[in-house]
Amino acid sequence: MTLRRAVLGLVLASMALAAARGARAQYPEPRVRGEPDALGAAAALYDAGRWEEAADAFEAAARDGAVALPASALRRWGIAASEAARPLTAYVRLRQYLALEAPADREGLIERTGRARDAVLAAAGRFSRLVASSERQPYVEAGGERHVVRVAARDGDVSLEGLSGFRVDAPLWRRAEEIRLSPYLDLVRRLLDAPGFVEDVPPQAFDSNEAGPRRAAFLRLVVGDEERRVDALRGQPYERVKEVVDVVVEFAHRAPALPYPEAKAPAPPGPGKRRR
What we know:
Elements: H1 6-21, H2 38-47, H3 51-64, H4 71-83, H5 87-100, H6 106-126, E1 127-136, E2 145-154, E3 157-165, E4 173-179, H7 181-193, H8 195-198, E5 215-223, E6 226-232, H9 235-254
Antiparallel strand pairs: 1-2, 1-5, 2-3, 3-4, 5-6
């Protein structure tokens, strides 16, 4: 695999952090009276076995709702996503449901969740993208800090780009190399098990009156056609997301690079007459 230009890729990745802060919130303003019951419509599609449409409808309901979805909706969403071959969504929503409820068919749901997890890991080796970043802006006499990591996998080839420092254009540490697939999949396993990745984060906005340095943590994982992103600015949500980002940053520092192919020694000259 040919690596992209490290600086360009990392600057683009850091721009994703800023974009994420203004991105579409998972639970925006409440629906006004008179709007159709989005959850009811999603449940009807689920009951009819129209799995893809149901999964899309639950996702739309999550965007349109004012509060977190009830456990019953998470269950249906996860099962619909599982039947529609959307393993990342199925895994996240079923994990969230099982953290809230202890149903009679818990063992069956745990098994379904495990199958979804295995499918995510298999798909991650074929095509996936991971971007993680954290930032602390300068405050009083304390300097700022930024970490950005980007990992891309396609058909078993994995490239990693990372930088850390006070400014993106003058990093204290930077690397852009190809790595082995197995350590990357181990990293994805850790992310799937991390509460900071599985739990939803309420939308947060910058407060100009807030004391202390501004901070931000952002994580985005794309596997196949699915995407999961979490970002936070303060409080316990920030600490959870930052903990996951730190795992990715540490991985970027420690993951061994693939050795460059050794250059072949020049072939010895063939037999012939010696020049006098």
